[in-house]
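Following up on my earlier thread - several people asked me to post the actual chain instead of describing it. Fair enough. Here it is, all 252 residues.
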Amino acid sequence: MPIIQSVDRALTILDLFDEHTRVLKITEISVRVGLHKSTVHSLLKTLQHHRYIEQDENGLYRLGMRLLEKGQLLLQSFDIREIARGPMDALSGKTGQTVHLVIRDGAEGVYIDKVEGSKAAIRYSRIGRRVPLHSSAVGKMLAAYVPEAELERLLESYDYSIHTPHTISNKSDFLKELISSRNAGVAYDREENEAGVRCAAAPVYDHSGQITAAISISTMTSTVGDEELAAFVLLLRETAEQISRGLGYRPR
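Reply from S.P.:
Thanks for posting it. Predicted structure:
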């Protein structure tokens, strides 16, 4: 099917905004998308009419409230969030650490819920944020259960971006890590995504026995040692099993 150019351009403009870029001038948008200012102005006016873009008193553009409304509708469709919330609260309460619930969307993980820990110093995550498969515990856990043929397609043009000296940087090492994670039933991020941060993730299964999400716990190496992390992992796995049972999963 052909790509509709005007729709493609409008969506490209929306994609310019993220946690690092909250507002933009029309000239900045024009440069970034490579379009004439008059064309960008027409696209922005259309997006503004439908409330996907807002313009403040200084003429700066930002994402509109319509996106929040649609995002909430999408999140409400994930019954897993409701089922997982109690166990996630309990895990965070017992450990004082931040707990995340993540699903896979193509070659990335997406945070769909989180509980901020009382002892947590980690603030980089947010609901809706995407994380790489190769450098995150949740990403590894989710990828570990992807069927071989699908995984091969997924990794054809995968970008093994290096975030720290510990980041896995190639397909061979990544596949070995996935086998290890699947066999252990738990995956780790050993300061691979962010220096000083270690995470562990466990799989969440649905009623059909398929992995539907991953739950993780994030810790700082400066405050949580190996022994304490191992104790947290036991609680993490119990929490994942509890959520899975809530989704109707029954081990054979």
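The first strand starts at residue 53 and ends at 55. That should answer part of your original question.
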